UniProtKB/TrEMBL annotation:
Keywords, sorted A to Z: Carbohydrate metabolism, Endoplasmic reticulum, Glycoprotein, Membrane, Signal, Transmembrane, Transmembrane helix
Family recorded in the similarity comment: Belongs to the malectin family.
PANTHER family assigned: MALECTIN (PTHR13460:SF0), PTHR13460
Bilayer topology: Single-pass type I membrane protein
Transmembrane segments: 222-241
Main location: endoplasmic reticulum
Protein name in UniProt: Malectin domain-containing protein
Superkingdom, natural source: Eukaryota
Gene Ontology CC terms, in alphabetical order: endoplasmic reticulum membrane
Residue span, Malectin domain: 7-156
GO MF annotation list: carbohydrate binding
Subcellular location: Endoplasmic reticulum membrane
Lineage start: Eukaryota, Metazoa, Ecdysozoa, Nematoda, Enoplea
Length: 243
């Protein structure tokens, strides 16, 4: 499923329309302002639209059969330009499987990022990497608000198989500048966030307002051409009068 309408990606994965539309959270297409790196033109929409919420929210997915599965979560950071500005947790059936996810710190701004969570369903049990819990056939994917802006997701799906079966993003498409920025920058703790950091379709500009290039010029320079003309005019007039 994805935020927005149904979609079939380049690998044949079917994404159904967002079941939370009109139910909880906010859908946003703010990312359409950017071309997302690591993604083909036909799959840009998967990372340009998202659902976020000012509180925690979750999706419920039915897993009808036993077997090995992978939860694939798709993200891109299109609003913030520094690490530590949007951080949240992800849980499966109330067990945290991704802690302190900071998309910008991993790949930078405007770059696709996927997270993989392998799990197994067997004998009414859900087996994850380090623990197992009773399972009733419903996988609850929860995006947990931890006080550093809002949790979000662009798209997600469950694949029957292992991590090796998941189609991968193209690492070669990440610019060197963005990769180095995300690796070298130290993430600082953020204890709170302001309402000013929330997404807004009206809160962006193409750049700072430019100063008038003529405002700082000396006004006397505009008089110079006129003085030159007057200096030439009087000698000519005198000569004409002597004729």
């Amino acid at each position: 499923m994805r935020s927005g309408r149904a979609h079939i990606d380049d690998f044949g994965v079917h994404y159904r329309e967002d079941p939370l539309e009109g139910v909880i959270g906010i859908s946003s297409d703010y990312g359409k302002r950017f071309i997302i790196e690591r993604v083909s033109p036909s799959d840009q929409i998967l990372y340009q639209t998202e659902r976020y919420h000012t509180k925690s929210f979750e999706y419920e997915i039915t897993i009808p059969e036993e077997g090995d599965y992978v939860l694939v979560l798709k993200f891109s950071e299109v609003y913030f330009n520094a690490p530590g500005q949007k951080v949240f947790d992800v849980a499966l059936n109330d067990k945290v499987v991704i802690k302190h996810l900071d998309i910008f710190s991993l790949v930078g701004h405007g770059v696709a990022h996927d997270e993989y969570v392998p799990f197994r369903v067997q004998n009414s049990m859900l087996y994850l990497k380090s623990f197992s819990i009773h399972f009733n056939g419903k996988l609850k994917v929860r995006f947990i608000h931890i006080g550093i802006d809002n949790p979000k997701v662009n798209a997600l799906y469950v694949l029957r198989g292992t991590v090796e079966d998941v189609p991968r993003l193209n690492d070669a498409d990440i610019s060197v500048e963005k990769r180095s920025d995300s690796i070298e920058t130290v993430i600082e703790e953020v204890d709170h966030f302001s309402d000013d950091t929330l997404e807004s379709s009206e809160k962006y500009a193409s750049g700072p307002k430019l100063q008038d290039p003529y405002a700082q010029q000396d006004q006397s320079q505009y008089l110079l051409p006129f003085l030159v003309i007057l200096a030439c005019f009087f000698p000519i007039l005198y000569c004409l009068c002597q004729m």
